[in-house]
Specification:
The chain is of the alpha/beta class. It has one domain: Alpha-Beta Barrel (TIM Barrel). Helix content is 42%, strand content 12%. Helix 6 links the parallel strand 3 and strand 4. The radius of gyration is 24 Å and the shape is globular.
């Protein structure tokens, strides 16, 4: 009995110490987008996504002279998109080619990569390119509940925002567009994204650069599928992208000669084209 009394006395003393101790320092809560109770998708949300993007305007292209390039046909536009960056080796090579041909694209960045290489994310925006979200850990979003989905999106957004923080003038180039990894979508993905004010941005034409095909084969796939499909998927990270860079150079050269020009996909026209 005496033994139990001692134990209880010690517990009481510990409890008193805990109550008198200063409160632990707790990290500030994340910016919240409160999850609604019901995330059922509805058929009218495609138009709502377009409205989200209507409220965002891409910056004006650089005033750098394009006299050395053929005159572009305003009706011939291609939307180049790049997934899985930023990458310290391949992303700068992609940026150099886009700059050479005065082309603008959207880079759908993985959050953990933006954390690892913030200067590359900054370079993307500084080059006049647009940035979208591609999830923090590159996992299949349909498998996630709302809380985990929310963290994948917000953590990615915050990683990119932090990368751009030293250049507030570039923050407008972080777009309200989300590209699900692997192109995996579901009713819940569309619904969750809508609730967080993000538009789902997919593609029409997969260059299959992730399979290791040659740059010439990449160009061939684009040429075959270009009409009417103009939203092109490529990659600037993840693996060896030497053939992607080669294919991009061929695409930019050949199609510029034919009067095409290259615009960012996460704009009103780009989103409407993919509905």
């Amino acid at each position: 009995m005496k033994k139990w009394f001692v134990i209880l006395l010690n517990l009481a003393l510990l409890a008193g110490l805990a109550l008198s101790a200063p409160a632990p320092v707790v990290a500030a809560p994340r910016e919240q987008a409160l999850p609604p109770d019901n995330h059922s998708a509805d058929s009218g949300r495609a138009q709502a996504f377009i409205q989200l993007v209507n409220n965002w305007t891409a910056p004006e292209p650089s005033a750098e002279s394009s006299q050395d390039l053929p005159q572009a046909n305003p009706d011939l536009v291609i939307y180049l998109t790049f997934d899985d960056g930023p990458d310290p080796k391949w992303t700068p090579q992609v940026l150099a080619l886009l700059q050479k041909y005065h082309a603008t694209a959207v880079f759908y960045e993985i959050g953990r990569n933006a954390r690892s290489y913030p200067q590359i994310s900054l370079a993307v925006a500084d080059a006049g390119q647009m940035i979208g979200l591609h999830g923090y850990n590159h996992i299949e979003l349909p498998k996630l509940g709302y809380s985990d989905f929310y963290l994948e999106v917000i953590d990615t957004r915050d990683a990119i925002r932090d990368a751009l923080s030293e250049r507030p003038d570039l923050t407008n180039q972080l777009t309200p567009c989300l590209r699900p990894p692997y192109g995996a979508v579901s009713d819940s993905v569309y619904s969750y994204a809508y609730d967080m004010n993000y538009a789902i941005s997919m593609w029409h034409l997969d260059t299959r650069d992730w399979t290791g095909i040659s740059g010439e084969e990449i160009l061939g796939l684009v040429e075959k599928g270009l009409e009417p499909y103009r939203v092109v998927l490529m990659h600037d990270g993840g693996e060896d992208r030497a053939e992607t860079v080669r294919g991009l150079e061929l695409i930019l050269h050949e199609l510029t000669l034919r009067g095409y020009h290259f615009e960012p996909y996460c704009t009103v026209s780009g989103q409407e084209y993919n509905r």
